[in-house]
């Protein structure tokens, strides 16, 4: 078995489980260590696949007749191909090349996207897809919300249930913090993959479907902080210190953003860095993404991005003392869509606390 970056083998796994490094500088960050074991490889591969806790994960796995408990088996079944990077697994006897398996260019299995967004496990009489290649990013798209990838024009867009992405993007725009831009999905887009019943349910619980354009490519990959932390642990490095060295300003802006939004979901897979596939080098911080758990009603939310235990407020105020960002753009805004008046007032209060 081989682990490849596009068409370049970077790790060879022998039949006895021995792992032989072929290109250290372009290994996944979590595997960049002097000696890679088979257990290391299994953990890396397993962490690429969807969690059973994701909305409609069971429906996706059941439709494809894949294990609900063995994430490594799921990864092997889909070759571990993802839209976050250009890594994939090729087993002995597999003669496929990157151009044949990559998800950035090849057609996606849209019926799986429909299941991932609606939960509707449709029965297909011919069921020919069970004998076809599994070509979907839904098996390697992380996170808990219902979501699915759709190709629109010349790009891929991630559609997800998460109304708070829209006001979060509006606020981050106003203060000049780099982030992934979201917009409300159109009725035409939604109708292509959601039943009327599902649309009514989403509206009934006060949610909406939004989408964002893909920010990775065949040239640029996402390295999550989780993988970066594992890399640092292999060499006795402090991952937070190393993150600050990459871009101190971007790191501090993240503290300000999360406090403004009162975001309680910036876990280790929800922030990170961009990597150049050609060289395997990190080029900077990834734009901020995934804010569907922002605007929490709870005060004193604990920061998930600082080494010391502190609140979002403490981390944000400390960052603002150094950056002194101009936050006046918020004062010119009306109440953003989907926020209650109370939620908006709380944003304004947090902005005032940042300004001291």
What's a quick, concise take on this entry?
Helix content is 33%, strand content 15%.
The helix fraction, in percent, is 25-40%
Radius of gyration: 21 Å
Q: How many domains is the backbone divided into?
A: 2
The SSE string, one letter per element, is EEEHHHEHHEEHEHHEEHHHEEHH
What composes the largest sheet?
A: 4 strands, antiparallel
User: What is the overall pLDDT average?
Assistant: 92
Can you tell me about this structure?
- There is one protein chain.
- This protein is α+β, with helices and mostly antiparallel strands.
- The protein folds into 2 domains: 1-140, no CATH class; 220-354, Phosphatidylinositol 3-kinase Catalytic Subunit, Chain A, Domain 5 (Orthogonal Bundle), CATH 1.10.1070.20.
- 33% of the residues lie in helices and 15% in strands.
- The protein contains 13 helices and 11 strands.
- A hairpin with a 2-residue loop joins β5 and β6 (155-161).
- α1 (38-46) packs across α3 (71-77), α10 crosses α11 and α11 (248-261) crosses α12.
- The termini are far apart.
- The model is unreliable at 123-131 (pLDDT under 50).
Summary keywords:
356 residues; Phosphatidylinositol 3-kinase Catalytic Subunit, Chain A, Domain 5; 2 domains; four-stranded antiparallel β-sheet; 15% strand; alpha+beta; globular; 33% helix; single chain; 11 strands
């Amino acid at each position: 078995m081989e682990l490849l970056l596009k068409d370049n083998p970077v790790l060879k796994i022998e039949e006895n489980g021995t792992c032989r490094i072929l290109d250290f500088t372009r290994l996944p960050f979590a595997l960049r260590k002097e000696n890679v074991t088979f257990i290391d490889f299994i953990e890396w591969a397993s962490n690429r696949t969807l969690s059973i806790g994701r909305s409609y994960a069971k429906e996706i796995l059941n439709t494809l007749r894949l294990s609900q408990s063995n994430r490594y088996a799921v990864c092997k079944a889909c070759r571990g191909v993802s839209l976050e990077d250009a890594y994939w697994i090729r087993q002995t006897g597999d003669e496929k090349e990157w151009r044949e398996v990559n998800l950035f260019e090849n057609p996606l299995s849209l019926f799986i996207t429909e299941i991932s967004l609606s939960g509707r496990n449709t029965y297909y009489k011919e069921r020919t897809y069970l004998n076809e290649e599994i070509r979907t990013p839904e098996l390697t798209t992380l996170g808990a919300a219902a979501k699915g990838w759709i190709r629109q024009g010349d790009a891929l867009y991630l559609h997800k249930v998460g109304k708070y992405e829209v006001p979060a993007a509006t606020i981050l725009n106003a203060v000049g913090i780099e982030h992934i831009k979201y917009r409300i999905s159109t009725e035409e887009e939604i109708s292509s993959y959601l039943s009327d019943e599902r649309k009514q349910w989403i509206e009934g619980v006060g949610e909406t479907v939004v989408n964002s354009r893909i920010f990775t490519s065949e040239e640029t990959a996402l390295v999550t902080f989780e993988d970066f932390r594992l890399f640092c642990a292999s060499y006795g490095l402090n991952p937070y210190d190393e993150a600050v060295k990459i871009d101190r300003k971007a790191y501090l802006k993240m503290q300000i953003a999360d406090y403004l939004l009162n975001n309680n979901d910036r876990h280790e897979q929800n922030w990170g860095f961009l990597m150049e596939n050609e060289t395997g080098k990190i080029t900077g911080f990834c734009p901020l993404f995934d804010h569907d758990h922002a605007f929490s009603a709870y005060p004193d939310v604990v920061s998930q991005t600082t080494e010391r235990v502190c609140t979002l407020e403490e981390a944000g105020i400390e960052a603002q003392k150094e950056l002194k960002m101009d936050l006046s753009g918020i004062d010119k805004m009306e109440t953003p869509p989907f926020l209650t008046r109370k939620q908006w007032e709380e944003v304004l209060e947090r902005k005032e606390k940042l300004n001291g």
